[in-house]
Every structure is written in C-alpha cells, then in structure tokens.
Amino acid sequence: MLLRAVRGGLLAGLLGTVATPALADYVTVISFGGANKAAQEKAFYEPFKAATGTAVVHGSYNGDLDKLRQMVEISHVSWDVVEVEAPELARGCQEGLFQKLDQRLIGDPADYVPGAVQPCGVGIFVWTTLLAYNQDRLQGRPQGWADFWDLKKYPGKRGLRWGAKYSLEFALMADGVAPKDVYQVLGTQGGVDRAFRKLDEIKPYIHWWKSGQDPVRDLSDGTVVMSSAYNGRIAAAQPEQKGLRMAWAGGIYDFDFWALPSGVWKKELAEKFIAFASQPAQQKVYAQNIAYGPTNRKAVEQLDPQVAANLPTAPANMADALGMNVAFWAEHGDALEKRFQDWARR
Length: 346
Description:
Elements: H1 2-15, E1 26-31, H2 34-52, E2 55-60, H3 66-73, E3 81-85, H4 86-95, E4 117-118, E5 121-134, H5 145-148, E6 158-161, H6 167-174, H7 182-186, H8 189-202, E7 206-209, H9 214-221, E8 226-230, H10 231-237, E9 244-259, H11 267-277, H12 280-289, E10 293-294, H13 297-302, H14 305-308, H15 315-318, E11 322-323, H16 326-345
Parallel strand pairs: 1-2, 1-3, 6-7, 6-8, 9-11
Antiparallel strand pairs: 3-9, 4-5, 5-8, 5-9, 5-10
Helix pairs in contact: 2-12, 4-16, 6-8
C-alpha cells in the first residue's frame, strides 16, 4: 500500500506538467515551449488535428530527462512524444529511455540532412547556439567568443546557458582554438582544464540562463550586454526588439529530435505524429515561423531564398560554425557536467 501511495504521489507530480482534455484521441507532445512551441503549433499540432482528428496536448520542459526517467522506472509514462537535444537523445537511447525508431515512418533517410536520422529519433530542425547582443545597449559589434571574453572592451554581465555543454566549447574558442579542433582539445585532460581556466576569467560576470527565452529578456532589459542564445529565439524577437543582433562565427549547430519514450501508451498515435511532422510541407511551415533549418531536404528546396539565407543551414552561417559532437557528450557528458557543477558552486 505504501509503495502504491508513493507511486501515486509521484505520478500525480509527473502528470502535472500537462493538461489533458476530455478527448477520445489525443497525443501528448513535450517540447521546449516559447517561440518554438508557437511555430510547432502552426506547423505540426494544428495541421495534425485537422488531418487526423487527433488533438495534440502540449507540455513544456527544459530538457532535463529526470522526470521521464522516473516515469520509465515506475512503468507509467504519460509523455507520448518528446523533443530532445542530440546528446540527450544518444544517452537516453543507451539508457533505454527511448525506443528504437521505426525508420519506415519517415521515408528515405537520404532525404534528410546528415545526422538527422538516429537510431532512437528523427531530427525536427537544425538550430544554432550563438553569440547575441543588443546593439542599442552596446558600443561596438562583437564578432565572436574572444570578444565575449573581453571584459575591457565590453564591460558588464554576459549570459551563458547553465551547464558544461556549450560553455566549455565556447571557452576554448575564446582561447584561440579553431572550431574544427575543439573536440580534439576537449577530449584531453589538459583541454578540459584549459576550458575551465578560461571560464574562471569571466566567472563573476556570468549570468546563467536555463530557458531559451531568458537571453531575449536579459538582452532586452539590460541584465546582460551579450549572451549565448538560440538563433531562432533571437530572430523571433527581432521584429519587436530592433537592436538584437547575432554573430554566427563560432556558433554550435545541432538538431532537436522527436523521440518515443520507452513504455509509451499511445505508440501508434505517437508514430503517426512523428511521421506527419517529418513531411516536407510541415517542415517548410515550421521554418517559415521560426529561423531554424528543416531536416528534410525537400523542405529546404521549397523555401524562399531570403528565408533560407537566415537559417543555420545557410552556407555563410555554417562557414565558421561547429557541429555539436553527440558521441563526445554521450561518452564524457556525465563526468564533465559533474565537474561543472562542482566548479559553479565554488
């Protein structure tokens, strides 16, 4: 009885992340919210209901898989489809948090950009974490991570996403490591020590963020003078926040993926949703509503050239970019995140 009560209390907490309507058929999709959610509603959720009669119940999270891990452990999974970043997809696939993807759902893998089709997921979009700043609050135009670390030229607080991932790569690039060499250097103990020493230089000036909307707010209200940020969130805010700018050099591009949790209740509906959202027509609509690149090549071909030029997949924006090394973070992520937590608390 006690175990049942504990499980019941835990389950109530887990289910509290979404509101489920009284519908015969619905699929629960967990994603990162904000401007991303708004674009997904137009490209995926609303058209899916119109095409199939199945509603999408949306819930937001920050990418932390602890809740999903708990649900899988008690065999009571209420999430049907989860948006997940590449390193977490790889680690979750290894742990058994995600099911293997039936690749017949998405058509020919050759239709997708390299890296978009993985054993446990299919890419939703390509995005970049880059340097962003507010031109109205800053003198000069920072060009890359060396400028981000230059406290004399650009005094004030600067924002970084909480965690080792991204912070260590940016630190090494600020210290002169070429993007193509970052993971080779970070794969050594000396490289890790070098990255943390570089972070030490600006530690008192770092304003940590966790939600993708945080940098937009912090840049707009002057909390920080510059910040790492998701390109799509900055682009979505630019019509109202005219001073927001992006520096693409040294950005880290990655995929977000759709994945099916192990033990998903509505597997058939979840698979239908993923298949639908992977179609070129839906990916085109998504890219038209937020500046993230489609993973389906046929969608890229359908985009207006002016829209395509502002996406992470544009050649000019990829020229000095770094691809997120999923294998590296799958192997070293736990140890580096632990060291980061210890470093941050000091």
